[in-house]
């Protein structure tokens, strides 16, 4: 595509962003524009030409990087969750780390996620995944399966070491994540009304205590002596 074609303005609503001519910067600018528009209008109401306009590129340039809107959503999901997933992997990937350290650390980081743009993306999924099931599939493949996989593996290893009571490791992982997910969604949905929003840091700390009291086995005298 010629430079003249790339400079032709799109006739769509919304102020265009000032163009950056560095080619390597274009994908990130497009993803950022898509995230803004998805949050503002929803997935279904956002047109690819709107994203191109907001990013300051020609529609043809947009399709070079992202052939479909689902591809663009996948890039958005990867972008806003990448750092969080790396942190979660760092916490849970050491399978020899005591589970009494892993669970509180994971829940504390889940509370931090509430201050990112992840909740707005989850809200979008809840509202539009029935009409656009590919969105849920992308979120599952890129995020949910990774988080559940990490926590499930940590639980399985802790059970093998005799730290935790028996039980389905994946269901236990759901029971650990569930209250934080509910609190995050509650804050996202109710932030615009006169509702008392949960403090997710306090919820994380309290939930960690509750879940560990129910899951962690009491050490036998000889085990307690070895750990001391």
Percent range of helical residues: 55-70%
The radius of gyration over CA amounts to 22 Å
**Can you tell me the CATH class of the largest domain?**
Mainly Alpha
CATH superfamily of the largest domain: Tetracycline Repressor, domain 2
How far do the termini sit from each other? 68 Å
Strand percentage:
under 5%
The number of distinct helices, counting runs of at least 4 residues, comes to 11
Q: What is the H-and-E element order?
A: HHHHHHHHHHH
Main structural class = mainly alpha
The global form is: elongated
> What are the low-pLDDT stretches, counting only 5+ consecutive residues below 50?
1-13, 221-225
Q: Taking all residues together, what is the mean pLDDT?
A: 83
How many strands appear in the DSSP assignment?
0
| Largest sheet properties | none
CATH overall fold name of the largest domain:
Tetracycline Repressor, domain 2
Describe this structure in words.
This protein is mostly helical and 228 residues long. The chain folds into 2 domains: 3-67, Arc Repressor Mutant, subunit A, CATH 1.10.10; 76-217, Tetracycline Repressor, domain 2 (Orthogonal Bundle). It is built from 11 helices and no strands. It has helices spanning 3-6, 26-41, 48-55, 59-65, 69-92, 99-113, 118-128, 133-160, 169-190, 200-215, 221-227. The longest helix is centred in the middle third of the chain and has 28 residues, at 133-160. It is elongated. The relative contact order is 0.11. Mean pLDDT is 83; it is low at 1-13 and 221-225.
């Amino acid at each position: 595509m010629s430079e003249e074609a790339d400079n032709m303005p799109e006739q769509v609503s919304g102020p265009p962003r000032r163009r950056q001519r560095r080619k390597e910067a274009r994908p990130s600018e497009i993803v950022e524009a898509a995230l803004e528009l998805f949050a503002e209008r929803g997935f279904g109401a956002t047109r690819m030409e709107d994203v191109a306009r907001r990013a300051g590129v020609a529609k043809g340039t947009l399709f070079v990087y992202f052939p479909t809107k689902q591809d663009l959503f996948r890039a958005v999901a990867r972008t806003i969750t990448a750092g969080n997933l790396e942190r979660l992997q760092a916490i849970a990937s050491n399978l020899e780390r005591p589970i009494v350290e892993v669970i509180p650390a994971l829940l504390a980081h889940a509370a931090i996620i509430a201050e990112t743009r992840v909740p707005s993306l989850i809200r979008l999924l809840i509202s539009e995944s029935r009409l656009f099931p590919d969105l849920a599939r992308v979120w599952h493949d890129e995020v949910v399966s990774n988080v559940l996989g990490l926590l499930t593996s940590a639980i399985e290893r802790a059970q093998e070491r005799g730290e935790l009571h028996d039980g389905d490791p994946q269901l236990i992982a759901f029971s650990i994540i569930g209250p934080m997910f509910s609190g995050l969604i509650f804050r996202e949905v109710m932030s615009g009304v006169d509702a008392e929003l949960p403090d997710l840091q306090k919820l994380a700390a309290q939930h960690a205590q509750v879940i560990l009291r129910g899951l962690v086995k009491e050490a036998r005298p000889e085990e307690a002596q070895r750990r001391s």
